[in-house]
Design goal:
Glycosyltransferase involved in cell wall biosynthesis; single chain; alpha/beta; transferase; 2 domains; Glyco_trans_1; transferase activity; Rossmann fold; 16% strand
Length: 406
């Protein structure tokens, strides 16, 4: 069975949740004998990426091909290529994608990108099977911060998928049961498949030393520096409440710059916590395991929102895989897998005091916290193991490829 994947960023280089999700599934399918080819329509994100990955390369049998050779490594370049240059690249990308799809009878899997959707949906007389994945509701852009253009593009993307693209699909992979229920309400839906969050447990078997700027003991948050999605503002306030009881403990915030980052930095300064609450920026995928494996606590103060209801945080799976205790909010489908004070420490979402209390509880009872962390790891091995989930995905793709007819 052959699978061709069209994607914006190289999952072997990206440290994002999306990149990690792609990589677990790609590696899992490859290990099961699926011939996987990845076509990267975006640009190189850094000089290092271009040096490390040639235009055409192969990693453990997985073939990668970059459509573009430019290096886009600043926020202004990113904006230019996203909002302006992408329109000029459309014709060239369409020609290249058509060439790859012509006569192809395997499975085509596209990232959730409007340009990709339009190109693939317009392909005449397709012989391939088309699948997609959703890990959150498409209308969450209405509630997230962003400029008018971003929100407009989000609306266009949602409308195109729901009115045109979904009916082109042979299969739709969904991360949560809430998404299954949502798309079941559509007319003429493709074959739906529930595939929970996945994690590569092997990445966390060895506890390497973290980068030298991470001084133990510390609490670590890895995710989006966004209040609406991940509740970073709540985390800052909660840590401030307990910090005086733990004078040697630091809080490290790991993630790329976001619209909320300036307000976080201002608030940290107001609290006089600049020496103990530190925004560390983004780190490579290879360094994340050492950062979170050496943390005393791992935290995810996600608010209760539509995004939380439809999605499931990939970082939570990585947290659990370390065997370290995790403090999180009881939102979405997280409580379907984890139990308070058994495999995780739950706090009421949206409450600074509640999150501060669970932080203190975990820190005051280190023996119990260790047991909770190990139980959480067992849950990750049982429900989120990439090897187990990849086998389920493989059987779904077999059904699409050999049996399911639209």
């Amino acid at each position: 069975m052959q699978v061709k994947i069209f994607i914006n960023s190289n999952p072997y280089y990206s440290s994002s949740a999306t990149g990690n999700r792609w990589l677990t599934l790609i590696e899992g399918l490859n290990n099961l004998g699926v011939e996987v080819k990845i076509f990267i329509i975006g640009n190189y994100k850094s000089v290092e990426e271009k040096r490390k990955f040639q235009t055409n390369t192969e990693i453990d049998g997985v073939k990668l091909n970059y459509f573009n050779s430019k290096i886009v490594d600043t926020i202004w370049k990113k904006r230019y290529y996203k909002y302006i240059s992408s329109h000029f690249n459309l014709v060239a990308n369409k020609r290249k994608i058509y060439k790859e799809l012509n006569g192809f009878e395997g499975i085509v899997w596209s990232e959730n990108d409007l340009m990709l959707w339009k190109i693939i949906a317009s392909f005449p007389n397709k012989a391939f099977k088309l699948i997609s994945e959703m890990s959150e509701f498409l209308d969450i852009h209405h509630d997230n911060k962003g400029n008018v253009l971003q929100k407009r593009l989000g609306t266009v993307k949602q409308q195109f998928f729901e009115k045109k693209y979904i009916n082109k699909l042979d299969g739709l992979i969904l991360m949560t049961k809430n998404l299954i229920n949502h798309y079941n309400s559509f007319k003429d839906v493709p074959l739906l498949f529930h595939l929970p969050m996945t994690v590569d447990l092997d990445r966390f078997k060895v506890r390497n030393t973290p980068p030298e700027e991470f001084k133990s003991p510390y609490i670590a948050f890895v995710g989006v520096m966004n209040d609406a999605k991940d509740g970073v503002n709540i985390l800052i306030e909660a840590f401030n409440k307990i910090s005086y009881n733990y004078p040697s403990l630091n809080l490290y915030l790991v993630g790329a710059w976001n619209y909320d980052t300036p307000s976080h930095q201002s608030r940290i300064k107001e609290l006089n916590q600049a020496k103990r609450i530190k925004w560390m920026g983004e780190y490579s995928r290879d360094l994340i395991p050492s950062i979170i494996s050496n943390a005393k606590l791992l935290v995810l103060p996600r608010p209760d929102s539509k995004q939380a209801q439809g999605g499931f945080p990939t970082k939570l799976g990585e947290y659990l895989a370390t065997g370290n205790p995790v403090c999180a909010t009881s939102v979405g489908e997280i409580p379907d897998y984890l139990e308070d004070k058994k495999s995780i420490y739950f706090a009421e979402p949206g409450s600074i005091n509640a999150f501060a209390q669970v932080l203190s509880f975990a820190l005051e009872e280190p023996t119990e916290a260790k047991e909770v962390g190990l139980k959480g790891k067992e849950i990750a091995e049982k429900y989120f193991n990439k090897n187990i989930q990849s086998k389920k995905l493989y059987h779904f793709l077999e059904r699409i490829y050999y049996e399911h007819k639209k």
